[in-house]
Design goal:
Number of domains: 1
Order of helices and strands: EHE
Length: 65
């Protein structure tokens, strides 16, 4: 996940998260502190994230324009 806002409200990156990021995305992945693994980062408050591959629910009522 890519943290848009609230990065200070996440736990520090642990060694397992760091190792998995490097394995999955390469060594440069840990240079950007906004790139985190959702399954490893502990949320300590409100944050806003972007998660690729997530689409809006097609059954949710959307207001017509």
């Amino acid at each position: 996940m890519h943290v848009i806002s609230g990065i200070a409200r996440l736990s520090a990156m642990g060694r397992f998260e760091r190792a998995n990021l490097v394995r999955q995305r390469g060594p440069r992945s840990i240079e950007d502190p906004r790139l985190r693994l959702a399954c490893q980062a502990r949320v300590l408050g409100d944050i806003i994230v972007q998660k690729n591959g997530v689409y809006p629910d097609p059954f949710t009522h959307q207001e017509a324009h």
